[in-house]
Amino acid sequence: MSNTPSIKLLLPAISPAAPGTLYEQIITGLKRIISEGLLEPDSALPSFRQLAGDLMVSVITVKRAYEELEREGIIYRRQGRGTFVAARGQDRSREVKIAQARSHLRNALREATEAGLSPTEIQQLFMQTLHPTAS
């Protein structure tokens, strides 16, 4: 018997009312638990059907999420054996999250520049956001 809690318990609630599509929410949740080391390399993931049933989403939604994670090198599939966390899944998940953070920061920088803020004002805004209780 595995000591790892079920994926359903590790994932945040998946909801049509939450930001992003259902498959994006699954991707985000799996990246988080893999990057935090809650799933070790070569850990088996639930089948499409099992996870779809647990999360009450369609099999196609889970399949799409798994395909995206496989494309990013975070998980891998073995024909007839299942889906597993890749050996570098934790590193790849972290790298993807850092790339997304960079993208968000670039977008925030563009928005601040378009708002007419100077580089100094942007830097102050960033520090105020990073340390909201310091100001």
From TrEMBL:
Keywords from the named record: DNA-binding, Transcription, Transcription regulation
Pfam families (alphabetical): GntR
InterPro entries linked to this entry: Tscrpt_reg_HTH_GntR, WH-like_DNA-bd_sf, WH_DNA-bd_sf
Top-level taxon of the source organism: Bacteria
Residue ranges constituting the HTH gntR-type domain according to the UniProt record: 20-88
Coiled coil start-end: none
Matching CDD domains: WHTH_GntR (cd07377)
Protein name: GntR family transcriptional regulator
